């Protein structure tokens, strides 16, 4: 089989697509068929596609194709994604990595209308804030991958990420962020449950930096880096306080002292009675 007879997917590649022929991707289904069913070696696949063996290995790695991995047809993958399943969930159910899921979705070009410009935030905008929050913040798609999936450009994606303040290390829109993460909610997650800023960010769909900025804005004292504090105690007299790092040991020592004092008092009382006899 010659390179001309093999299946190639013609599409604009993103900024991170440097492997293989510029402007095309090998078909994931065909690669899976060769590797998983026909057991074709990488060198022969490279000869069929007109690629080096190293390039073949790179595409197999990017698509998550390896011996022992289940054959996942593109139509099934696209069907799961169109049904609203996030890439991370698809990865958990199919056994391939989330990165490979993203690569295969881009290869499928599931949402590629004619490129055009839309009013940011309009009903026709293919890049609404909730979609970018799910794909970029929660699911880890790059700007180039989102652009390929929505028929836009990486520049349009990055502009909206900046507009919605969803870029890496940037917080979300302040009013919406405060409605999503109130002080009471943040106290519950950070102080009472002991979650880290990154864990809270993942749960709430915001950036970790946004959580850190809210901690400062709400006047909540941050824990030392790399260490979880015990849940704070709230008393009417002293308000919200952080316990001592060795509070449990201190409490046990105080209890032992109190017990010792009771024993000493009982011994003195007994000795006094004996002396009076």
From TrEMBL:
Chain intervals for the UniProt region annotation (Disordered): 226-246
Designated name of the protein: Homeodomain-like domain-containing protein
Organism listed in the record: Paractinoplanes brasiliensis
Species lineage: Bacteria, Bacillati, Actinomycetota, Actinomycetes, Micromonosporales
């Amino acid at each position: 089989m010659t390179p001309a007879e093999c299946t190639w997917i013609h599409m604009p590649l993103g900024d991170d697509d440097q492997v293989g022929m510029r402007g095309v991707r090998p078909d994931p289904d065909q690669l899976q068929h060769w590797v998983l069913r026909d057991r074709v070696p990488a060198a022969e696949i490279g000869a069929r596609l007109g690629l080096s063996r190293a390039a073949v290995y790179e595409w197999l790695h990017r698509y998550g194709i390896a011996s022992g991995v289940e054959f996942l047809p593109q139509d099934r993958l696209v069907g799961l994604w169109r049904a609203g399943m996030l890439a991370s969930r698809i990865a958990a159910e199919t056994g391939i990595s989330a990165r490979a899921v993203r690569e295969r979705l881009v290869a499928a070009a599931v949402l590629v209308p004619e490129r055009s410009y839309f009013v940011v935030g309009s009903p026709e905008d293919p890049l609404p804030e909730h979609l970018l929050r799910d794909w970029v913040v929660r699911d880890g798609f790059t700007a180039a991958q989102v652009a390929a999936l929505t028929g836009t450009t990486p520049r349009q994606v990055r502009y909206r990420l900046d507009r919605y303040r969803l870029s890496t290390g940037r917080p979300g829109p302040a009013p919406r962020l405060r409605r999503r993460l109130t002080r009471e909610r943040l106290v519950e997650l950070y102080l009472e449950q002991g979650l880290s800023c990154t864990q809270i960010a993942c749960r709430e769909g915001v950036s970790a930096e946004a959580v850190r900025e809210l901690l400062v804005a709400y006047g909540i004292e941050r824990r030392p880096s790399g260490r979880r504090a015990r849940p704070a105690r709230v008393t009417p007299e002293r308000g919200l306080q952080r316990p001592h790092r060795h509070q449990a040991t201190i409490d046990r020592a105080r209890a032992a002292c109190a017990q010792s004092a009771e024993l000493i008092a009982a011994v003195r009382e007994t000795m006094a009675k004996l002396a009076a006899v």
